Fold each of these.
Amino acid sequence: MRILDIIEKKKNKIALSDEEIQFWIDGVTDGTIPDYQTSSLLMAIVLNGMDEHETAKLAEAMMNSGDVIDLSCIDGIKSDKHSTGGVGDKTSIALGAMVAACGLKVAKMSGRGLGHTGGTLDKLESIEGFNCFLSEEEFKKQVDEIGLSIIGQTGELVPADKKLYALRDVTSTVNSIPLIASSIMSKKLASGSNTILLDVKYGEGAFMKTIEDAKELANAMISIGNKLGRNTMAMITDMNQPLGNTIGNALEVQEAIETVKGNGPKDFTELCMCAGEIMIMQAKLAESKEEARKMLEEAISSGKAYEKLLEMVKAQGGNVEQIKNTDLLPKSKFITEMKSKENGYIGNIHSMQLGILAMYLGAGRQTKEDSINYAVGLKMNVKKGNQVKEGDLLCTVYHDEELSQDWINKFYDTFTYSQEKVNSIPIVEDILG
Ligand code: URA
């Protein structure tokens, strides 16, 4: 087999065979196919696409390029969830505790953030001592015993994706549904859970800008999961404004804690409840969504979800006193209130820009080497559609350095106002699968 023939085939819009896809991914993994030929094939895929069968084969070949976690030693159905990423997304922390309190086994491997605020691991590391790097054995033992563990990737998961993603990043070949779907799903498949819930975000602060694109990506990932024997479902959720009220690591942990205690913001709580219902149904622990919702409500009102979060933090070496008393979480030097300069209804809130402003405060990384300031971030006081008057509080900023005039100008630019009533957007747009 020759890679040149495979490139030629895709250039001519002909579907690749399983053997050809396997040959390519083997060559990417062991370095025998040079980057310039892989780049050429990637561009041909961007331009000419892949059908469902090719996409599933690509995900499978990538999954098998490295370690595949075997969770079969843990009793019961193992559940995973994945978000395509958004601003203020602390879902894994609250949702993990909520569904584990309902009896699910959640074995979650998360990532760090680059670009704006931190990823789930960075958020958890704002808790003193929290260890995101358990061995595979410790990870499995914890999931078996308490039903919940969130860690960074163990072993060498999906090395082919690492190489392909690095190449795609510098060859303008990121934006392709089959490439994105197979990249995300190869990692979920290698993580070993039986069920997968995908939270595919759409909107200004998301990877997919429109509902239609988000649905197309979701359907491509559902098809891969189902073809490879995993019960896979997706939620299409709004990212036209930050999720919940907080952006920034310790602030988001605090909001996740409030949410598992039943005091979370309405949109974030609803997203967690909807996701929880689906995960409980996927794990066959309830027969209807209504029953699943009751289980989640009970987990919150009885304090079991909060207890589960405490158990996970304790098991992973974190300081539980900071969970019991969130005043002990990292604190910024300064707190500044940003007040509205106008009257009207809040139209748009540019969540991506707010995420970038939080990054400038130190909440996220611009390069992999940057360190994170856990204390800094934003606490929003308004949502799209709220009516505000001049002088009303828009947001509280937690920061360690003086805010520059440029930062302040950019902050005010993230809001648009309307004199007409603005409808709020439902957080969950659709459920697929
Ligand atoms: N996230 C991934 O893991 N892969 C992609 O291709 C895009 C987003």
Amino acid sequence: MLKDKFERNHDYLRISITDKCNLRCTYCNPVDLPKGFFAGHNRMTADEIEKVASVFVEQGIKKIRLTGGEPLVRKDVKDIIERLSKFPIELAITTNGVFVHEFIDIFKSVGLRSINVSIDSLKKDRYFSITGRDEFERVRENIDLLLENDFFVKVNLVAMKGINEDEIPDFVAWTKDQPLHVRFIEFMPFAGNAWSGDKIISYKEILDLIASRFSFEKLADDLHDTAKKYFVPGYKGTFAVISSMTQPFCGECNRLRLTTDGKMKNCLFSKKETDILGALRAGEDILPLIRACVWEKEKMLGGQFTPSIDKINASDIQNRSMIDIGG
Ligand code: SAM
């Protein structure tokens, strides 16, 4: 078991398999990344991902989510999916959805059924202005394709003031006839993403916007859920809010992360990273490093800030950009 000093057990690992992405969402993938930013040859190979994952699985990891960057742009992603699907875990993926149609058969063949797709707007022009790419129709079609094939589909969008707040009720309307699970994510601060507290649409504001059009009810949340779940009676799908900033869920956090260059982070906001890949390549035993990294986890938000939004100074936060951590 991977326990920290606050008695939290960790059984969920998110592995970033690339720091590259085909989209240019500024809240995630800043345009002014420093030269030489990408991990290059320091990226974990498929072999290394499998080896490191096997150590985590032996220690009780029950769920692995592949992320990035955009995981489906990595050339050997099929190989990685096949290798990880051999472990006794639930395998899941978070994707921007652009290439899903090319991978649906492999998802089916390995039993990967849970897919999170990011789409920040339901308007083609606005999608383009957020992502810098004209992929709206492809992503919508791919979400339909996943639903037609009975995948469990969560739709992620980052709720940002002045960007997409007017569409929040439209996303809930989408759950009327489709069994999808929309998740509104509070905008989080990362290196280079021009975050400020006044750009957040808070959990409470999101619910107020939805209440202006719908009556809804609360669903029971699971112990480790990051999302607070709701539904509109009679609708096929559900919606939820990931209130990372205004009501964080650190108390029951069961997550660990590996960046594409093989650094372990015990929290999305942790300053400290543990070099698992370096140790693996040096032939060292990585388990003591993993255990120490888990043990040192801070009580809340990587120890970097508290949920008082107006007191957060984004430039004081030491972290990578989201594309580089793996969301
Ligand atoms: N490329 C994939 C995708 O688009 O889903 C996986 C990686 S992306 C970093 C994972 C998730 O992180 C996406 O749902 C994205 O919206 C979210 N994300 C990125 N930057 C964020 C931020 N600053 N605040 C909140 N969520 C963010």
